[in-house]
Every structure is written in structure tokens, then in C-alpha cells.
Amino acid sequence: MELKKKVQDLRVIETSRLNKRHFILELEAPEKLPLILPGQFVQALIKDSPSTFLRRPFSVHAVDYRKNSLRLLIQIKGPGTQHLSELKEGDPLNLIYPLGNSFSLPFTKDVLLVGGGCGVAPLLFLAQFLNHNNIYPTILLGFRTREEVSEIDAYAASGKVHVITDDGTEGEKGLVVDHSIFQLERLPFKKIFCCGPDAMMKAVAKIARMHKTDCEVSLENTMACGFGVCLCCITPTDKGNERVCVEGPVFNINRLKWQ
To answer: Nearest-CA neighbor of 137 among 159, 104, 161, 108?
Structure first.
């Protein structure tokens, strides 16, 4: 089912700083929000940032239909995202949304969500969506260091949370795939959803294949337009080159030409 896309100005309700590099932007829509599914994203027009010419893609982090608002978890990487972090209550932000496909509703309750860095962004919305379908997943979140660990209580309200940091200052030490969950002789999960850096997702995909566990990943390719015109975000699949912003961003690993 293709969902209708909107182009509209949303109003900033709140900008919440999580740490030095990450913040959450909560936006209120001027009319009833359309149906948004976990894994979908928005393209934001960043005005008053002279070096930012193209819209920027951000995963939908959470949706509150009662408040008619959505939340974006954003990492400050350059002038554009720095400008977004400085938006104040009442400021407008123009979005094209909802874009892309979504994570699938799993056939099992034995579900693992795996996120690394800013790749944790779509997983809170996914976890909450799964809860509405009586699925309470295990959630593995990877960060560089304790200072970047955030929103653990929000994730814990939706599933069983495990944390790993590169330097071991919070939770276990190492990369996401070094976590003890992945050291088990047999994974106790029948479905894995994953989002994060390519190297991390490829490593998780390798483990999933080894255990014959179904796995979906959300790719983070560069997206200039968000609706399939510019062809900047092409990825090789079993059907040839496909547009991550339209046919994705979510793909089953069996469709990707990663190995």
C-alpha cells in the first residue's frame, strides 16, 4: 500500500538536547497526521543555512497521534543539522513525508532490534508499533561511550534493553556484534530488525545468515530528493539496482548484494 505524501510546514513544539551530538526535534502537523509506519522517513528543508542546498532525510523516531506530532532524532554533523538544533518553539520546518517503505510486521514474538549510533532512531517507533501488536522485543543498542547513551527508559518501556559501548563505559564493551547475545550457540530470535552504520549492519546480517534468522535492515544511503528522481541512493539488489528512498530504506538481507 502506497501512502499519500505530504509537503507541509510543521511547527516546532520542542527541541531536546540528548548530548553534545544528538537532539530530538518534536514537530506538530497543521492537520491530522497521515498514517506513518516504522522505518519511514522525512525529508526536511533547511532554510537559513547557506551551505545546505538539498533536503535532509531523517527517520521518524516516534509518532503521537493524540498530540498530532512526530519526533526526529538527529545527529549534528554539519551546518544544516546544527541549524536544526537551534530551532525554537513555534518555528516552522517544511517536510516531505512519509517517505519510503517500512519494517514488516513479524511472524513471531521472538524479535531482536539492533541499533548503532544514530541508527537507533527508527527503532523506538518500531518497538512501540510492535507493542501494539502484543510483541515485546529484545533491544540491543550500541553507542561509542556512556555520554552518548540516551532514552534507555523509553526503550525499556517497550522491551528488554541491552547496551554496549565501544569503550565499555556503559553496558558491555565492544562493537554491537561483540555483545553476549550474539555469542550464544543458538540465537533465541526468529526475526532481527537492524539500523546503523553499514559495517555494523553487514556484520549483523552475517550472523543472521549463519543462524538462519530472518533479518531486515534500514539503509542510510545519501538521499537528495527522497522520492526516486535523483538516483543518488541506488543499492544493488536481487532485482538489480534499486532506489533506497523508494524501494527501501528497509530491505530483507536476502535481497541485498552484500556478500
So the answer is: 159
Domain residue ranges of the chain, discontinuous segments joined by +: 6-99, 111-218
Cβ-based burial of 241 (10 A; exposed 0-12, middle 13-18, buried ≥19)? exposed
What CATH class is the domain 6-99? mainly beta
| pLDDT tens column, 47-56 | 876 666 788 8
For 59-93, b where at least 16 C-beta lie within 10 A, e where not — what string?
bbbbbeeeebbbbbbbbbeeebbebbbebeeebeb
Domain 111-218: give its CATH code: 3.40.50.80
| pTM of the entire predicted model | 0.94
Per DSSP, the residues of 53-118 read -S-EEEEEEEEETTTTEEEEEEE--SHHHHHHHT--TT-EEEEEEEES--PPPPS-S-EEEEEEGG
